[in-house]
């Protein structure tokens, strides 16, 4: 079971009994329950095909029509609330190219908040704040095409932070990063005072960044608890096709 959020106010994320089948009849989710308190950092683990992406796409209304309920900060994810939901749920995609398309870094970071109505000095301040948060404040005038992979990943994060989301959803944040860029991104994420859901196959990264993990397999939550305890359960990992890197030892 996950941590008890009773008495700590409205949870950042409340998913109850969420079930979803694709139009071809494939049932991707079977009654998922997930509750994340404000400020929690949670890793979402599971093998390919477990339903992780389907769950994430329900959090900001990209997918709708399933059974059950999804609420972000107490606001139901439904058509009439989608603009505010998409501000509250900031998804950082695995490939920065999905988020970086403007001529300069600053224009990319400004795009989201401008779309939500910010203008003038407030918009410029939001952009600088977001770039500063990811250690890229000196790169606003550069083209994203001229940045390293790690820098591009951090700018993609800044484009989401600039919208002041309630929840950060990170899709495989460490993928294709060299060790230094991986460490730099981890340092940025640990400094952020944000509720975080990190979808990852990188179990050591989950351990480093997320005190709690949820394992999803076959469209259902099969484990929910302290990350260190779950990763120490060899039988659980093997049963759900999760594996620590060769030679990795839990301290």
Number of structurally distinct domains: 1
Question: Given the helix and strand composition, which structural class is it?
Answer: alpha/beta
Taking pLDDT < 50 over at least 5 consecutive residues as the criterion, the unreliable ranges are 1-8
State mean pLDDT (0 to 100 scale): 93
Spatial order of the strands in the main sheet? 6-7-8-3-9-10
Task: List the total number of helices.
Answer: 9
**Number of DSSP strand runs:** 10
Question: Between the first and last Cα atoms, what is the distance in angstroms?
Answer: 24 Å
Helicity level, as a percent range?
25-40%
Sheet having the most strands = 6 strands, mixed
CATH topology: Rossmann fold
Principal-axis shape equals: globular
In sequence order, what are the helices and strands, one letter per element?
A: EEEHEEHEHHHEHEHEEHH
CATH architecture: 3-Layer(aba) Sandwich
CATH superfamily: P-loop containing nucleotide triphosphate hydrolases
Q: Any idea what the radius of gyration is?
A: 18 Å
- Share of β-strand residues: 15-25%
CATH class: Alpha Beta
Family: Belongs to the ABC transporter superfamily.
Keywords: ATP-binding, Cell membrane, Membrane, Nucleotide-binding, Translocase, Transport
Pfam families: ABC_tran (PF00005)
Protein name: Cobalt/nickel transport system ATP-binding protein
């Amino acid at each position: 079971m996950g941590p008890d959020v009773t008495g700590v106010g409205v949870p950042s994320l409340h998913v109850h009994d969420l079930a979803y089948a694709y139009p071809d009849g494939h049932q991707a989710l079977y009654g998922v329950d997930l509750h994340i308190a404000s400020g929690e950092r949670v890793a979402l683990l599971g093998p390919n095909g477990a339903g992780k992406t389907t769950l994430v796409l329900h959090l900001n209304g990209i997918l709708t029509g399933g059974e059950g309920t999804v609420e972000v900060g107490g606001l139901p994810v439904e058509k009439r609330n989608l603009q505010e939901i998409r501000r509250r749920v900031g998804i950082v995609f695995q490939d920065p190219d999905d988020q970086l398309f403007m001529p300069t870094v600053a224009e990319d970071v400004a795009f989201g908040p401008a779309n939500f109505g910010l203008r003038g000095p407030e918009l410029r301040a939001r952009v600088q704040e977001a770039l500063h948060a990811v250690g890229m404040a000196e790169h606003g005038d550069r083209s994203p095409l001229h940045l390293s992979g790690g820098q591009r990943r951090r700018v993609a994060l800044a484009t989401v932070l600039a919208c002041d989301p309630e929840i950060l959803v990170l899709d495989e944040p460490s993928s294709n990063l060299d060790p230094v860029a991986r460490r730099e991104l981890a340092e940025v994420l640990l400094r952020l005072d944000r509720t975080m859901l990190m979808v990852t196959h990188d179990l050591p990264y989950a351990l480093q960044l997320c005190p709690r993990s949820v394992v999803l397999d076959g469209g259902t939550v099969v484990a929910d608890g302290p990350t260190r305890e779950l990763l120490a359960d060899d039988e659980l990992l093997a049963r759900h096709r999760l594996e620590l890197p060769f030679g990795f030892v839990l301290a």
